[in-house]
Model the fold of this input.
Amino acid sequence: MREKRLWVLKLNLKKSFQKDFDKLLLNGFDDSVLKEVILRKKEPLDPQFQDHALKGKWKPYRECHIKPDILLVYLVKDDELILLRLGSHSELFCKSPTQFITLKPTAQPTTPLF
Done:
């Protein structure tokens, strides 16, 4: 019988993610679901998380739903899991010029979180 090998990803928390996370914790956010999502393995997420690729200025990043209006923006690059943002849809995708983030494009195609 062949053993299934799980690839563990190196976690890279961007400053913007850490600020978002700290803000949510101060507001009573239960991070247990987030921990379930970021197990750092290259396996598909459960469909309940609605994982999908982003378009436009957010390409090549991906997004998944931690809770109905708490979204995680991330990228898997090689063996690294980059967590970029965490928050509500309006907080993350607001058209306000003060909230634009310069995203560095990558030549590699996006890979689902798991």
Q: What stands out?
A: The first helix runs from residue 15 to 26. Strands lie at 10-13, 52-53, 62-67, 70-77, 80-87.
